[in-house]
Amino acid sequence: MTGSLDALAGVGADPRRGGYSRHGFDRADLELREWFTEQATRRGLDVHTDRNGNLWAWWGAPGPDAVVTGSHLDSVPGGGAFDGPLGVVSALEAVDLMRANGFTPGRPFAVVVFAEEEGGRFGVPCLGSRLLAGTIDPDAARRLTDPDGVTLAEAVAAAGLDPARLGRDEQALGRLGRFVELHVEQGKGLVDLAAPVGVASSILAHGRWRFRFTGEGNHAGATPIGDRRDPMLPAAALVGAARRAARAVDGARATVGRLVPNPGGSNVIASTVDVWLDARAADTPRARAVVDEITALATTAAADEGCEVTVTEESYGDTVYFDPALRDRLAGALGGVPALPTGAGHDAGILAGAVPTAMLFVRNPTGVSHAPAEHAEPRDCAAGVTALATVLTDLTA
Ligand code: GLV
Ligand code: MN
Ligand code: MN
Ligand code: MN
Predict the structure, then answer these.
(1) 391, 10, 340: which is closest to 179 by C-alpha?
(2) Binding positions for Zn(2+) 2 (predicted)?
(3) How far apart are CA 290 and CA 285, in angstroms?
(4) Biggest CA pair distance of the chain
């Protein structure tokens, strides 16, 4: 198992940040997609790219009511080796194991790689699965822009896709019967349960918001304090407000992981500051309450400094409860593994709105994710492959 992940170790390694930076349709991502195509083809799977840039590898003929497994290959900036690739590599190894057991699926079966799951380049997470499911407006998606000013339309065109065809994919949706995603756990739930593998029960309601504070660019030395309209002041207030608002709501989380002052000179009062807020909670009323509280405080702080603020909701998804029957079927096939919730978003969470969907988690001894310390032991990865092969055999027999 780790053998296959090791094969990816050189792709998108980011010595400056540590870990990996692999973003939708960038050079590293294209290399990983080629690697997947080669690996799947070598296994006799038939690979094609859908209209939204997701890769499908069919074992046998494509058809309706298909059982599909897979994950993503892109990462957050400076991410770990397992978030995404573990699910893809495990899917390929599950195919090997099923074959070694003399098994051939009795119904359509595919391994999928979803595009730009993390939103590390264009800001919206689960972009490939959202486009496929039709939960994002394709015009808005085409206009999404990366930090270098490249639009999604331009990026997919450069990757050989037709940007005009982005959007809800009736053909792919029509074939999907059930979806199972294996993923490294992104907390310590399985460590605490002393279990190598578990099934997911739910995903927190979560979203991303971009606040733009606009003030007046000026000189750091020549501008008296009383004459300033410094957008960094409300931006800093937002960071503190996020922590306080999340703390006030049971189980809520609020994070500012990205803050970009423009122009970003150490002796320059910024003219604008963009602040990205990631907020999550058990349900939509709680998530909205956290974001509303933060927005109110940020708006007051902006007015106090003579600044303007605009807020853009970049993505939002309600709480996901995975299909209970499918979850129980997986847990049963695996001899009764534990079910646990997660605070992390997944393509499986998007697909759960369209078809019965389930997830398998593999124990992460560090409990750390979206950082280089993310880990899974080879023995647990092997247990994940065995579990996935067991479940897929059950579902496709
Ligand atoms: C993606 O992994 C997310 O939960 O942000
Ligand atoms: Mn992730
Ligand atoms: Mn992931
Ligand atoms: Mn994710």
Answers:
(1) 391
(2) 83, 118, 370
(3) 9
(4) 78
* Ligand 1 and 177: CB distance under 6 A: no
Domain end point (choices 289, 317, 345): 317
Mutate to test the pocket of ligand 1, among 71, 76, 276 (most ligand atoms within 8 A of CB): 76
Using one digit for the tens of pLDDT, what is the confidence trace for 211-247? Answer: 999 999 999 999 999 999 999 999 999 999 999 999 9
- Residue 347 belongs to domain spanning: 2-204+319-396
Residue 80 and residue 195 share a domain: yes
Average pLDDT for the chain: 97
Looking at the structure, tell me whether residues 63 and 170 fall in a common domain.
Answer: yes
- 94: CATH: 3.40.630.10
Residues contacting 55, CB < 8 A, separation 6+: 33, 36, 37, 40, 47, 48, 49, 112, 113
183 marked among binding-site residues? yes
In the numeric block, the tokens 């840039």 are attached to: 53
Q: What residue type is assigned to position 327 of the chain?
A: R
Q: What is the pLDDT of residues 62-102, one digit of tens each?
A: 999 999 999 999 999 999 999 999 999 999 999 999 999 99
Q: pLDDT tens across 116-135, in order?
A: 999 999 999 999 999 999 99
Proportion of the chain above pLDDT 90, given as a percent? 98
Strand, helix or coil for residue 211:
strand
How many domains are contained in the chain? 2
Peptide bond into 263 cis (omega under 30): yes
CA of 93 to the centre of ligand 1 (A): 24
Check whether residue 199 and residue 211 sit in a common domain. no
